[in-house]
Amino acid sequence: MASELTVELTDPLPRVVPVGLGGEYPLHGLCELPAEPVETARLLLDGEPHPAWIDPEPHPWDERGRHVVWAWAPLDPVARARPLELELEARLAGGSVRSTVLGETLLTPSARRPLDLPPPDGRGPRVVVCMATFNPDPELFARQLASLRAQTLDNWVCIVCDDRSDPAGLATVRAGCATDERFVLVESDGRRRGPYENFHRALTLVPRWADAIAFSDQDDEWYPHKLATLWERMEESGAMLAYSDVRIVTEGGRVLADTYWTNRRNNWTNLASLLVANTVTGAASMLRASLLDVLLPFPAKINGVMHDWWVATAALTVGELAYVDEPLHDYVQHDANVLGHQAPPIERPTVREVASFLRRGVPGQRGFDEALVNAREAYFNHTRRVMLSARTLERRTGGATTRAKRAVLRRVGTLDHSAAGFTWLTARGTVRAGRKSDTLGRDTLLARGVAWRLRAAQRGRTAPLPVD
Asked: Residue 20 gets which letter from DSSP?
């Protein structure tokens, strides 16, 4: 045990945090506690207290026997940039207080940095295509660009954000973009971002004149009527986002499946299910540019989140989604796919395992420590990720959504507050067991995380359940 309170955050605080319409920043790390028992903990934002929690059980795989600590940092809109200091404070059983500074970040009003581009001078809606690239295959990349140039709706520009390709890859991207002035290449700023943050970067650059935005991968092949069909479907339905089916093919063009929906059920109406698991493929979708105010900035990245998941849930929160029941592009499957159609499902527990977790033995029993770690990881890598999306959308949308959808956001955003969230998720997992599901059984995985959270609350006063 240490004489003072020390914390090592899993992810260091970013230097700058854009706020937009508001949000929450998830904090998570390992804490070395003083020898004296800790009664309560709280997060201080410029001295203002907010709940924080410390797992009473040491992490069994941490060599130093540290405890997991976590908190939500609520962020309100700011009119101008200002610094924010974050501090963790713990009250000990004897009444004394220990604290440690977690760091400082700069809050800024907006993530948007629109490019000063002239609008396309054609007829029809002005579409901005956001493409993310990283070491593209030259042949596939050229084919994708050609399919974009062949669109019947040709009133578009394409922002190509490269994610630190190697010299050969960057040369491929530069050469492809040089073929048409409508392709605007934005090279890397030196930091490898990954798809989630790279698509976020592309969205921040969308010019203010845009009517609609479409996402593009670097290696698919669009059908000529793709943009026109998505726009028409979005307009006739009044939806905030429209997406289509896709055909699954190999690099050589061999058809693997005529539809994306070979092993799961599609969903574009149920917000709770969409928050639990995404069904909207970004490269198959088009959204209204007016959605950017809610979308940006993206929530902090938590394991496994993808840009299209966040975009789809935001669109369904403030409006509706529309589905085009026909493939509008070929989705190419190959070894370099970041997340392909045939990607293996995440490991998930059975309903019986989750339901029994709270009743299982004590730490140190054979197999229990591993189960404890698995449940803890489910909470921080999956349950909290879904909660973060719901909590962010609740803060940003306010009266811009329906009462029913606000209730869904509140339920999902507070999954770990009581046994009600555990019961709801377990019931959903039970109903979906053994049949084609729109969530791929992830309800039960989230329930495992909630079970760990409830158990932590049972076993120590430093990890109380949140209070609304």
From this structure: T
